[in-house]
Design a protein that fits this description.
Layout lengths: L3 E4 L7 H12 L4 E3 L6 E5 L3 H11 L8 E3 L15 H10 L4 E6 L6 H4 L4 E5 L4 H10 L3 E2 L14 H8 L5 E4 L10 E4 L6 E4 L5 H5 L6 E2 L29 E5 L2 H17 L4 E5 L11 E4 L6 H17 L4 E5 L7 H11 L4 E3 L1
Parallel strand pairs: 1-8, 2-8, 4-6, 5-9, 10-11, 12-15, 12-16, 13-14, 13-15
Antiparallel strand pairs: 2-3, 3-7, 4-7, 5-6, 9-10
Subcellular location: Cytoplasm
GO molecular function: ATP binding; double-stranded RNA binding; L-threonylcarbamoyladenylate synthase; tRNA binding
Organism: Clostridium acidisoli DSM 12555
């Protein structure tokens, strides 16, 4: 397949390109496009055959449901059975934005999109390109991240090209994703609502709307027989680079000392080591490729840079990646959720 590639200026959108992309989506094609979370791989959410192409292009398990993206509130009426009051309150506060709500779906959404579930995730992105593409297509767009399944999600066009060139119809570039991690998912089919995946809309922010909202405990721990994530997709390997990842967790000085000790052990084995550090610690490591995620005082920058940093280590062909841990508060919960998954919960406590 010949994949067409374009870049759009968000301040002066090319309406002809948007029109072309809308037609491709409506006619059953696949398009990678930017959102504020990560880049998405979109297809007509109401077209089973189009949605199947997403699973093929990504190599994604077909029991992993997709999120449906809309551009206007009035699109909800034909997609979901009802919208609980708490969902309405959350939408009012956080849409458009990096929040997905699980609601009971109507039959118009095929089982292929929902992976056979009676519910569906709905999101209204804030990214202007994403919104204009949805409007132009005239249909809701099913869109997981625009990468090969299991790899770190793409936050720029180049990574979409790397993974999907020749597999889809169109790749459209815009700005680098502002959040850098996938949307917060909240199940509104239960009462109180439950956070199934943490993201840019933090638990603390959600509790200001309803203090009873809670987070699924299983998403922050290694799956066990009696503790499994409620979200179907969370059971799969996610966000993983080629090299194995190990997280060193504890008081910062001890973490630095332990990472330096581990580095020397790997160097002795002839291994190339990558370290995910921060601005405050990047100069305290030796004999490794060190990349700072940003300042510990700015978790937003750390989240934004996480996936791209993991991919950079792939580019550098390191044999092992060591990462500092972060406090599990605010956006740190989402960061550690992704780090834990990328490492397969391989955590060294110090």
């Amino acid at each position: 397949m010949n994949t067409k590639i374009d870049i759009l200026d968000t301040k002066n959108l090319d309406k002809d390109v948007i029109f072309t992309i809308g037609n491709i989506i409506r006619d059953g094609g696949l398009v990678a496009f930017p959102t504020e979370t990560v880049y998405g791989l979109g297809a007509n959410a109401l077209d089973s055959e189009a949605v199947k192409k997403i699973f093929v292009a990504k190599g994604r398990p077909q029991d992993n449901p997709l999120i449906v993206h809309i551009a206007e509130f009035n699109e909800l009426d034909r997609l979901v059975q009802n919208v609980p009051d708490i969902a309405k309150k959350l939408m009012k506060c956080f849409w458009p934005g990096p929040m997905t709500l699980i609601l009971e779906k109507k039959p118009i959404i095929p089982d292929t999109t929902s992976a056979g579930l009676k519910s569906i995730g709905i999101r209204m992105p804030s990214d202007i390109i994403a919104r204009e593409i949805i409007k132009s297509s005239g249909v809701p767009i099913a869109a997981p991240s625009a990468n090969i399944s299991g790899k770190p999600s793409p936050t720029d066009m180049e990574r979409c090209v790397e993974d999907l060139n020749g597999k889809i119809d169109y790749i459209i570039g815009g700005e680098t994703s502002k959040v850098g991690l996938e949307s917060t998912i909240i199940d509104c089919t239960v009462n109180p609502p439950c956070v199934l995946r943490p993201g840019g809309i933090t638990l603390e922010m959600l509790k200001k709307v309803d203090e009873k909202i809670y987070i699924d405990k299983a998403i922050m721990e290694k799956p066990k027989e009696n503790l499994k994530p409620k979200a179907p997709g969370m059971k799969y390997r996610h966000y993983a680079p080629k090299a194995p990842v190990k997280i060193v967790k504890g008081e910062l000085k001890k973490t630095i000392a332990k990472i330096n000790e581990i580095v020397q052990n790997y160097i002795g084995q002839g291994k190339k080591v990558g370290i995910m550090a921060t601005d405050e610690t990047k100069d305290l490591y030796n004999d490794a490729l060190v990349i700072s995620l940003g300042s510990r005082k700015d978790l937003n920058s750390i989240g934004k840079n996480l996936f791209e940093t993991l991919r950079c280590f792939d580019d550098k062909e390191v044999d092992i990646i060591l990462s500092e841990a972060f406090d599990e508060i605010g956006f740190g919960v989402a960061i550690m959720n992704r780090l834990n998954k990328s490492a397969g919960f391989n955590i060294i406590d110090v």
